[in-house]
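Margin note from the TA: students keep mixing up input and output lines. Inputs are the sequences; the output is the structure of the whole complex. Example:
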Amino acid sequence: MERFAALVDGLVYTRSRNGKLELIADYLRTTPDPDRGWALSALTEGLSFPAVKGSTIRNLLMERVDPVLFALSRDFVGDTAETASLLWPKPAGAVMPPPTVSEAVEALSRMTRVSVMSELPRLLDRLDPSGRHALLKLATGAMRVGVSARLAKTAFAQAFGVAVEDVEEYWHALGPPYAELFAWAADGAEPPNTGEMPLFRPFMLAHPLEDAELDLADFVAEWKWDGIRVQLVHAGGETRLYSRTGDDISHSFPEIAEALSIPAVLDGELLVRGAHQGGEAGGAASFNALQQRLGRKTVSKKMLDEYPAFVRLYDVLILEGEDLRELPWTQRRARLEALMPRLPLERFDLSATVEVGSFAELAEIRSGARDESIEGLMLKRRDSPYVAGRRTGLWYKWKRDPLLVDCVLMYAQRGNGKRSSFYSDYTFGCWDGDPDEGADLLPVGKAYFGFTDEELKQIDRYVRNHTVNRFGPVRETDRSLVFEVAFDSVHESKRHKSGLAMRFPRIHRIRWDKPAHEADRIDALRALVRD
Amino acid sequence: MTAPFAWIRPEPHGIHVAPANCWIDPSQPVANALVTHGHADHARGGHGRTIATPETLAIMELRYQTREGGLPAHYGETLRLPGDVSATFVPAGHVLGSAQIVLEHAGERVVVTGDYKRMPDPTCPPFEPVACDVFVTEATFGLPVFCHPPIEQEIAKLLAARERYPERCVLVGAYALGKAQRVIVELRRAGHHDVIWLHGAMERMCRLYEELGVPLGDLRLVTDAKKEELRGAIVICPPSALNDRWSRRLPDPITAMASGWMRVRQRARQRNVELPLVISDHADWGELTATIEEVNPQESWITHGREEALLRWCQLHQRRARALALVGYEDEDD
Ligand SMILES: [Zn+2]
Ligand SMILES: [Zn+2]
């Protein structure tokens, strides 16, 4: 536990992403199994111990410390777990040595609502303040050390010199404490077998197309749809629908999950059918219609009827046991076209390619596109394999409205007037390089409009739950929420560290589905500077 | 006088000793001032006459060019003031020259601590508890979360960071009066005899400490160093210089800060501190409460800091206490 506590403290005090990566990688390399696996779980999805609640910690303290002194201390420290770790009274008599992480995890998972009141104190008695802090953070599942799951996985990849995409892929096949993942990465064992499981495979991503023209002999053009990029997987008799972040969203779209019974991994855009808000009848509705379906735990019949979902397919990764990812795009496309007749028409269609003679013609088609559900064009190298992540030179996205960038929320400030109880002013940033190589976010702008009252409430709640630091009315978030920011223009500016300033930035859309490391880089924004 | 302790009154600008026509640590210029120690929230320039320890007078002279009107009071020496008041200066263990002021009048004894601590400090004599009727105490770290660890442990952390990153330097933010010199002496005691590099604002106070008999070893100014020389070195600067342009000349500094506030993570993060060192020249919660029990006053008056929690503790322990609303006192960057 002492090493884990030192890691947690190190992460609290280290600002740079690189520094955090080093700390985690060093810990993972030098800590034995299964402690490092539990620690990794704690840093990523968080471990869950239902017996330990925030109120449990308060109640334990109330039995030991005067409530007024506790309240004054809590106000000053700003965090219940930390306050408790500092106020915990020294146990009388001899104590056992500190528990290991696995010992603590085992003990915590055995605790019940009743036994926690006597068993958690026994663990706390064995630790120093820093150990108690780490234990309470681990037990309540809220580490809040400014480390995203992605960063932890990147650190894992760095620690053992493996590809982060492979880590992502195997990750979903395994559970804490990830013994097989360490055996593979650290000791060179066979990779975990993922064939019979409905697992998420990391998406292939595109770079924004900047000034270059592409040769259409090498590249094929395809519409880019304004829905949610999804991956649909059927394996071992189960079907799962995954979002960009690898979250399982099958329960929100049961009609899609039911519709695939061929063992396959498909890449496509999730859309809602209908004429809502500008969509063509029978075609895809606008993104707003899709919003109605997102984030729901249960789906009513009315929802299913009014907003029927379907997937517009882009690609096939695996088909009936055959991994097609190494094949060129043209061959995968042929396999996908051949597959279409076997899929229910109601739930699947094929994203059409755009056949044109010249690049100029393509530019014209792009700017003339009127369909609300078209976000722009994709340009894919005809011979490109399907590789995880954003590989240069293979896929490009060419958005219809170029003045949109995906930024990461960094700070939120309370608003004025009737918004004074909400965090409604947002500072967001873009990456100054490859986030997986240790790049950092630099602020690029501030916005306080563009969202609905309902969305404001949602963002406010998000900010409160993802605060890592407070400065008066300002909260620093854990940098996990992506905003699609619209703006009129962008200029060079000496006043900002990023060297850029946006005019009239506004929140165009909240990308709850998008992982922060996929947000845009400063370079993408700089490419939009027109002077 | 009928009411007990009516001869000594807390006013917004200091503690007024009426029969002697003098003030303790006044925040405005007065005719006669008794000053506990040289920190800015206790010692100001511009008084007619200032009574303080010789060390405090020297510090005040350095900081405020107060040449005239200084009247030295040695530790243990009792001064007869007008109005049948006597004052004795007793070590407070806070910084060089710091004193508690023991006032006696009409058979009543009041001790004003100024700031104090109970942990050992090689740069000044230790706090001496004096039994009294009224104990006027500070409460800078008056919350039960504050527990300052032994300084050796924090110094070891500093030396370990230096060892781990020989290509970088460790930049320690430390209050220029007291904290900086204590850290330096403790580093020497831990066997670190290399040059310690100073920010310009530290130089004069360090020199004064040496003149007053506290040897600090080989100190040099950062402005005189080549960047290469600073790799693997320890540099000390005022806390305000930690994040400013000045530190850009240093080779990839590890930002450390020596302060009791570093006990709380949020405080360290607010100042971008990577290496928090919990080193304080003030009493922590345990020292504050144990000292009240030890001197066992009829009443405790709490001057500055987190009075509310210490008041609550007194109430829980059936001790009479009140918080004084003094102006001009602030949390020292400690
Ligand atoms: Zn002081
Ligand atoms: Zn003070």
